[in-house]
Amino acid sequence: MTGRNEAVPASPDRRGGIWGWVSRLIATRPRTVWAASLVILIGMGVGMTGFKADGVPTSDFVVGHSDARDGQAALAAHFPAGAGQPAVVIAPETKAADVTSLLKGESGVSSVRQSGTAVDGKVMLEVTLANAPESSEAEQTITTMRSDIAAKGWHGPDGQDADRQSAERQSAERQSAVLVGGPTAVALDTNETTIHDRNLIIPVVLGVIFVILVLLLRSIVAPLLLVGTVVVSFAASLGVSALAFNNVFQFPGADASVPLFGFVFLVALGIDYNIFLMSRVREESRKHGTREGILRGLRSTGGVITSAGVVLAATFAALGVLPVLFLAQISFIVAFGVLLDTILVRSLLVPALCYDLGDRIWWPIRLRRLAG
Question: Where are the stretches annotated Disordered (predicted)?
Answer without folding.
Answer: 151-176
